[in-house]
Automatic annotation (TrEMBL):
Residues 72-94 have a biased composition (Polar residues). Its EC number is 2.3.1.-. Its cofactor is (R)-lipoate. This is Dihydrolipoamide acetyltransferase component of pyruvate dehydrogenase complex. It comes from Elysia marginata. PROSITE patterns: BIOTINYL_LIPOYL, LIPOYL, PSBD. Transmembrane segments: none annotated. Residues 1-68 form the Lipoyl-binding domain. One of its GO terms (cellular component) is cytoplasm. Keywords: Acyltransferase, Lipoyl, Pyruvate, Transferase, Transit peptide.
Amino acid sequence: MGESISEATIISWKKKVGDPVKEDDIVVEVATDKVDNEVPSEASGILVKQFFNEKDTIKVGDTYAIVETDSKGTPTHVSSDINTENKEASTINSSKKEDTFIKPTQEKLEDKPTESKPIDTPLEKEFSKVIPSNSTESVRFFYSPLIRSIMTQENIDPSELQHIKGTGKNNRLTKEDLLKYLKQRNDSSTEPRIINPENPATKTINMELSEGDQVVEMDRVRKLIAHHMVDSLKTSAHVQSIVEADVTNMVKWRDLVKAKFHQETGVKLTFTPILIEAIVRILRDFPIMNSHISGEKIIMRKNINIGMATALENNNLIVPVIKNAETLNIVGLAKEVTRLSERARNNKLTHSDTTEGTYTVSNIGSFGTMIGTPIINQPQVGIMALGVIQKVPTVLESPQGDFIGIRYRMFLSHSYDHRIVDGAVGGLFVKKVAEYIENWDVNRTF
């Protein structure tokens, strides 16, 4: 699923139980905090079991389906009642079973305790034993039919159950645990309730509601953004350096060439690719800003991959990445900015479009914001916010003395990780970016 991805939500099943499946056929479509992904089968056969429903959240490492094959990889017979809870044993022979994973694990398997009814089918036992190799605590991956029935009756989102403390074996959720949770939830129904109170990003604050107040649950992406932002603040030692740049020459140049640029390239010339060109140029001279931290090691990245923080219409955020930006001229950068922005707005970004970033840019000026202190996009060590470009009166120096002139100016706000980037380097980096755009050649071609 890519770096920093720990879970996904099922959008839709592309295959039903009993359907024949070929290797690499799309089985399920899932959504992460970055992009939607179609997940292929790893074997050919018959889809004999689905462990999750649409809209369920599943963790990397979970078994989400079973494809049954014979020793030659051809489908075996499956009866029409294969999807029922307790009839698998009568229809599944002793042939090879291929577990379909989001990411396979090699962790030692543990038996699931009996809850509500005996676990007496091979497939239920197989599912109950899947534990992710990167787990640091006992995690429930299966809920009994009784638990699922209560979920349906009480309209409980599956993500809520992940944060209820279970008292069964291996911290599994029992009927009593769920009924106790429901009682507590109903007793506090007049108070705002936020899922995952253990996460500081979504800390529950008890307060009385006034008439007209609304309580709105965060959607999945907003919860993940909240978690990532708090996690970044807990991980990196954030420091900011801010400079103001005179961008008059850059603005004049764009005004001169933007019509011809659009005519010859087919894309509009915005300020974003111009400013990204400047940042990429200075990143070459400051390789420490194009690095990642892994434990106590610094990984210096060869390629410069620029992430663009992009606001979506649903008020969420995504960061598509311009790969190998150091190899692109301003035309190439403009085309990538346009392509990625359009794909983001249309929810068409691929996994590759949102991974492997080495430095991030946030164009807060597009919302009229002058200055910002952006949060670092982990595991990177720097991010720059580009403020709004404004006409302002400015004191100018000349041989005849100082005078007031109208100039275009903007603020560049640079957040960096003080664990490896000191103030002298972080401040000098953003100053050099400002000097690059201040000295823009108004006679250059594109």
